[in-house]
Structures are given as structure tokens and as C-alpha cells.
Design goal:
mainly alpha, Butyryl-CoA Dehydrogenase, subunit A, domain 3, 3 domains, two-stranded antiparallel sheet, 21 helices, 4 strands, elongated, disordered C terminus, coiled coil
Length: about 725
């Protein structure tokens, strides 16, 4: 009684686990010596409280006491694993693996009819929950240790696999009825974890793709991670703030990775983004296992306090028979697992899902995401017009800026041309009287504005191209729903195609039926072995007859074995029929896949056009603001350019006058008689300088004789060309 009492009120620490293991071992030693099992002479009532209902459950069976101790051992280990602050991941991981081991031993070695919390489904649920949390601990450690991205992805994928198994157990109708109200909460939490760790797995697959410079794969993995994380967030409503904070942090990480990867691929790498289902799936890497429970280990149970009470012969014989049953179960399970592995690999390679093998229902309606965009545009009928008007205004300002900059550039080029012409006429570089104020600055600013304009011109062109790309889609989304539905592709199937689909669905249903039957037979075999206890017969059987008795008792399993063999043998024929049906389905599948791809592409394109509208409007407004500012600056610069060019022209005029003043005064000449009125013909190549000198005009330097009249100073500038000059004599 003291030992039993200490097992009921154990401390929540390692010492409590040790106490439960010792008590379990002593119960095992006791039951092998005294007939305390159900219906036996020394059986005493054992009462425990059921965890889910809170009801007291009593059985006159010592194995029920052992089962309850085992359950509490698993529960205590799970509590210690959850209570640990993860100072050391190994400690928590070990606790969860020990818990899984306790529940596994309870499921495989004890009847499931004792209470609700000991049913096969509940124990399987507990096992997978424990293994999933143990794998979580290793996932945390691998991320803290900066392990390779692919390894982290596989570890996270295995967490998902364990929780999927747990979710399947929760979805079982028997489990739902046993758990009651908490079933929905547990299922929601497990599903949230499935999506969350799937997101973590795809996040690290995206990191691996980034390391391998597969930028298209990186985008789709990060997008998938983002989608799965959004599903996890939806399911996390009502969870503690610590969970919400973790989800928000993960969203920041994955969202940032996705946005950066998509932007880089769109503008730099331009790699095709593959469909997620075309990439190799992430296979989980199980790094944890259920640590086995050995109730007879002296290192755990301590010395056998009933060693001198009863001979062990009957127990030894029963143990031998249990080993024969275990061998039979191992042989059958090896065959089942081999066939299941072949079946799983075959179905994975086929990629056939009975529920979505044709997916025709999706074409009967506009998808919700597209309906949402259509509804949004229906209340904004001026969407397209506003966009076009905004782009037209941008084009007008763009043209004005371009005209102003061109005029400035022309003024500067004209000034440079006048400067070169003057240099050619003088035959040398004139001495610089000082550059006109602001001309160099005008040229510098003009170059800067031209550079800005050229860069903005490319952006402007891209913006117009994007607008033209999305304009038609926006008109379609804002139009009648019938037009939207008509724009979406739909498959066209002949009667033969429909027959092929029906045949394929029928065979897929046969595959599922074969699976269900196999699981049912396996469960029946396990339960039959569990209930098979021949201890009473062994007491009255001579040792020499033990082998014969074992053979007779094991024949009761022959019928079940035959059924299982038939089920396993039928698999080859079913898969052959499925292969033939799939060959016929190939052409139909290809057509459906192409239509589905076009459908998805069309939907994504229309959604992208809607989402691009706000961005286009924003960028066009930014363009207008930019060019309006540039237009004001260009107008001011144009005024400065005009002033500077005028100043430059004035300087050149002053330079020319100074050059003329440097020439010597005219030579004195004797008085001449009055001339008769005549015309002086200055022949080309003649003595123009002498004739001009005889007219009392200064001799021009050689470099000024070819200047046009408009560049000559004073009276010379008014003189007609030499060939046409006339003088009047008095």
C-alpha cells in the first residue's frame, strides 16, 4: 500500500519518473507469481480516475494497475518535457521520447478496453504528439547551430509528418467521440503546427535554392512558406500571446525573404518560377524514436521483492509463447510493410488523388479571389479612365521638360559654334577676357538635368509599357461577370474522355478499399494477439508438451493470415489495372493540366493587373511630381542660358573691337585732285588694302580681312562689300 500510494502522488521531477518505473517493475514481478489478472482467484479491484471524463474506473485486474502506471509515466515525462525552458534541447527531447516509449509499450502490450484514454487511437495520438515535440527540440537546436538549410528543412518536414499522423488519429470518428469537446481544440492546434513547420521547411528549402543560385525555385519555396504560414496564423486564433509573437516574427522573416526574392528575380535574374508540385518533395528525417520501456530491468526496478514467493516456470513458458506471438506478428508486419511501401511509392509516382483527379468543378464558377477584385472595381468605375488621364498628364509634362532641355542645349551649342567661328576668323585663340558669368554653371546644370531626364525617360517608358500591359485586364475586370467567365479557359471532354475518368476513379476507389481492409485485418490480428493468454493452460501442461501446445494455439491465427495473404496478393492485379487506366488517362490528364495551368495563369494575371493598378497610379503621380519639379528648374535654367549666351556674344563683340584698336594709324597721303564720279571695282586678288587705304580707311590686319561685315567695328561695319562699293566725287 505505501508503494502504491507513492506511485499515485509522485513529485513532478526525475524522482517521480523513477518511482513509477520501480512500481511498474514490481507489479510485473507480482503478476507472474500470483493470479491477480481479470477473473483470477487473487484479483482485487483497482480504481483510477479517467483523464478525459474524470470518472472513476475500476477493474479487478493487476494489468489495469500496470497500464495506469505506464500512462502516468508517459504523462509525467511529457509534462517535464513541456515544463523545461529548453536550456538544453537534449533534456526536453529525451523526456518526450521517454513519453512516447511509455505510450507505445502501453498500446502494444495491454488491452485497450480499460478506459477511454487507453484506446488504440488515443495512444497512437499521444505517441505521435510526443515524437513530434521531440523532433521540434532537435529542429530548434539545428537552427541554433546553423546547420545546413537542407538538413533543417528535412528535420522540420519530419515534424510535419508526426503531426499529420496525430491529426489523422484526431480525425478518426472513434477518437472524436472519446475526446469530446477537446477534440476540436487539439485538432486546430495540431493543424496550426502542421502548417507552421511546413512553412519552416519550405523557408529553408528556399534558402538552399538561394545557396545554389536557383532563383526561380527560391521564389516558389518562399511563396509556399508564406502561404502555409498564413494558414497557420488563421488557425492560431485564441492561442497564447507567445504563440502569436512567434508567428509574427516568422511572418517578418518569411515575408521579407519572399519580397526580396521576388523583386530580385523580377528585375535582375528573370528566372522562370516553377510550379511547387514539379519540385522534389522534402522527405522528413526522423531523428527521434520511442525509447523502449523494460519493466524487468533491475537497474530501473531495483531488486525483485517477490523473488521467493512463486516459481517462475509458468511465467517463463508464457514468455516463450509471447515471443512466438511476437515473431508471428513481426513476420506478418514485414510483409504488410513491404507491400505498403511498394503501394506508397507507386501512388506517389502516379500523383493521383481520387478527389481531384479531374477537378472539373472549379471551372463552373469564377474563383473567389477574382470575384473579390471584380467587386472592388465595380464600385470604382473610373479606374481605367483615371489611369489613362494620369499617364496623359505625365506625358505632357515629360514633353515640356524635354523641349526646354533641348532649347537650352541648342543655345549652348550655338554659343560654342560662334566661339569656334571667331577663333577661325582670327586664326588663333583670342585672349580670354573672362567667361560670361553663369555659362559654365548653366552647361553643368543642363548636363545634370539631361542625365536625370534620360534616366527618368527609361522609367517613364517602362511605366507606359506596364500600363498598356494591364489596361485591357482592368477593363475586363470592371466589365460584366459573363465576360470575365468567358475569358477563363475551360476544358472540353469527349464521351470517351469522361469514360476514362470514371474508370480511373473506380480503380482508385478499389485501391483505397484494399488499404482499409488491410488496416482492419492488421488491427484484428494485433487485438487477437493482445488478448491471447494461455497461462492457465501452461500450468497444467508438461514441459515436454510445450512446443506442441504452442503450435496448436498459434493455429487460431491461420484464418486471419489467409485473409491478409489474399489482400496482399490482390495488390499486384489492382496496380496493373491502375497502370492501364493511367495510360489511357495520360492524354486526358495532359489536356486537363494544360487547361488548369492556363486557368491559373489567367487568374494570376488578372489579379496581378488589379494589384498593379495602385502601384501604377502611385508611380505616375511620382512621375508627375518629379517632372513638374524638373520643369520648373528647366524653365529657370533656360532663362539663365539665354542671359549667359547674350553676355557671351557681347564679350566676343568687345574682343573684336579691341583687336581693331591695336592696329597702327593710317599713313599720311598727298592731297589729290577731285575725283570724278566713278565706280571702284575691287577685283578678286587685287590690292583691296591699297584701295581702302586710298579711301582714308585703316589697313586691316590679315586676320580681319575675311570677316563678314556684321563682325566689323564702327564705320567699317557699314561699308558695302568691296565689289559693290561706290564713291561720289565732288
Amino acid at each position: 500500500a505505501p508503494c502504491s500510494q507513492s506511485a499515485v502522488s509522485v513529485p513532478r521531477d526525475f524522482e517521480g519518473c523513477s518511482t513509477l518505473r520501480k512500481y511498474l517493475g514490481q507489479l510485473h514481478f507480482l503478476q507472474s507469481r500470483i493470479p491477480m489478472g481479470s477473473g483470477q482467484d487473487a484479483a482485487v479491484p483497482v480504481t483510477w480516475t479517467e483523464i478525459f471524463s474524470g470518472k472513476a474506473v475500476t477493474h479487478e485486474d493487476i494489468k489495469y494497475e500496470q497500464a495506469c502506471v505506464l500512462y502516468n509515466l508517459g504523462a509525467l515525462h511529457s509534462m517535464l518535457g513541456a515544463m523545461d525552458k529548453r536550456v538544453s534541447e537534449e533534456v526536453s527531447c529525451t523526456h518526450f521520447q521517454c513519453a512516447a516509449g511509455a505510450f507505445t509499450y502501453l498500446r502494444d502490450h495491454f488491452p485497450h478496453s480499460y478506459s477511454v484514454d487507453m484506446s488504440h487511437q488515443i495512444l497512437s495520438l499521444n505517441i505521435n504528439l510526443m515524437l513530434g515535440q521531440a523532433q521540434e527540440c532537435l529542429l530548434e537546436k539545428s537552427m541554433l547551430d546553423n546547420r545546413k538549410s537542407f538538413l533543417v528543412a528535412r528535420i522540420s518536414a519530419q515534424v510535419v509528418d508526426y503531426y499529420k499522423e496525430a491529426c489523422r488519429a484526431l480525425e478518426n470518428s472513434e477518437t472524436a467521440s472519446l475526446l469530446g469537446k477537446i477534440q476540436k481544440d487539439w485538432k486546430k492546434l495540431v493543424q496550426m503546427k502542421i502548417y507552421y513547420f511546413a512553412a519552416v521547411a519550405h523557408l529553408h528549402m528556399g534558402k538552399q535554392a538561394e545557396e545554389q543560385q536557383k532563383f526561380g525555385e527560391r521564389v516558389i519555396y518562399f511563396q509556399s512558406a508564406l502561404d502555409k504560414l498564413n494558414e497557420a496564423i488563421k488557425l492560431a486564433k485564441g492561442q497564447p500571446e507567445t504563440v502569436q509573437e512567434a508567428l509574427r516574427f516568422t511572418m517578418d522573416v518569411i515575408g521579407g525573404k519572399y519580397n526580396s526574392a521576388k523583386k530580385d528575380n523580377d528585375f535582375i535574374y528573370h528566372e522562370a518560377v516553377p510550379a511547387l508540385d514539379t519540385l522534389q518533395s522534402v522527405k522528413g528525417a526522423p531523428l527521434v524514436k520511442a525509447l523502449p520501456v523494460n519493466p524487468t530491468d533491475p537497474a530501473v526496478t531495483g531488486p525483485d521483492i517477490f523473488a521467493k514467493l512463486v516459481p517462475m516456470a509458468a511465467h517463463e513458458a508464457s514468455s516463450l509463447y509471447s515471443e512466438e506471438k511476437a515473431k508471428l506478428l513481426r513476420d506478418v508486419m514485414a510483409k504488410i510493410e513491404a507491400k505498403n511501401e511498394v503501394l506508397d511509392q507507386f501512388m506517389d509516382s502516379m500523383q493521383l488523388d481520387p478527389e481531384t483527379v479531374d477537378n472539373l468543378d472549379m471551372y463552373n464558377h469564377i474563383p473567389p479571389v477574382l470575384m473579390e477584385k471584380c467587386a472592388a472595381l465595380s464600385v470604382r468605375p473610373d479606374t481605367v479612365r483615371n489611369l489613362v488621364q494620369s499617364m496623359q498628364v505625365l506625358s505632357g509634362v515629360f514633353t515640356d521638360v524635354e523641349a526646354s532641355l533641348k532649347e537650352i542645349r541648342d543655345l549652348l551649342e550655338e554659343d560654342e559654334a560662334q566661339e569656334r567661328k571667331l577663333q577661325e576668323l582670327l586664326g588663333r585663340v583670342p585672349p580670354a577676357p573672362g567667361s560670361p558669368p553663369g555659362l559654365a554653371e548653366v552647361s553643368k546644370e543642363c548636363s545634370k538635368y539631361l542625365e536625370l531626364h534620360e534616366k527618368a525617360s527609361f522609367t517613364n517608358t517602362e511605366l507606359h509599357r506596364a500600363m498598356n500591359l494591364h489596361l485591357g485586364n482592368l477593363r475586363l475586370l470592371g466589365g460584366p461577370l459573363e465576360q470575365v467567365r468567358a475569358a477563363l479557359p475551360t476544358p472540353t471532354l469527349s464521351e470517351d474522355d469522361k469514360q476514362v475518368l470514371q474508370n480511373l476513379k473506380r480503380i482508385l476507389a478499389k485501391v483505397q478499399e484494399m488499404r482499409d481492409q488491410r488496416m482492419s485485418l492488421e488491427q484484428q490480428l494485433r487485438e487477437m494477439i493482445q488478448k491471447d493468454d494461455i497461462t492457465t493452460s501452461l500450468v497444467t501442461t508438461d514441459r515436454s508438451e510445450m512446443k506442441k501446445l504452442f503450435e496448436e494455439q498459434l493455429r487460431k491465427y491461420d484464418q486471419l493470415k489467409v485473409y491478409l495473404e489474399q489482400n496482399l496478393a490482390a495488390q499486384e492485379n489492382v496496380l496493373k489495372a491502375l497502370t492501364d487506366a493511367n495510360v489511357k488517362y495520360a492524354a486526358v490528364r495532359k489536356g486537363l493540366a494544360e487547361v488548369e495551368h492556363k486557368w491559373n495563369t489567367t487568374v494570376q494575371t488578372l489579379v496581378a493587373s488589379y494589384e498593379a493598378y495602385e502601384d501604377l497610379m502611385k508611380k505616375s503621380q511620382e512621375g508627375k511630381d518629379f517632372y513638374t519639379d524638373l520643369e520648373g528648374k528647366a524653365a529657370k535654367l533656360l532663362e539663365r542660358a539665354r542671359a549667359a549666351c547674350q553676355a557671351s556674344q557681347a564679350q566676343r563683340q568687345q574682343l573684336l573691337e579691341r583687336e581693331l584698336k591695336k592696329q597702327p594709324p593710317p599713313r599720311p597721303t598727298a592731297p589729290k585732285p577731285p575725283l570724278q564720279k566713278k565706280t571702284l571695282e575691287l577685283e578678286p586678288g587685287g590690292s583691296e588694302a591699297a584701295d581702302l587705304g586710298s579711301l582714308g580707311l585703316p589697313d586691316l590686319p590679315e586676320e580681319l580681312r575675311s570677316l563678314p561685315p556684321e563682325l566689323l567695328p564702327g564705320p567699317l561695319a557699314q561699308l558695302p562689300p568691296p565689289a559693290l562699293a561706290t564713291l561720289a566725287g565732288g
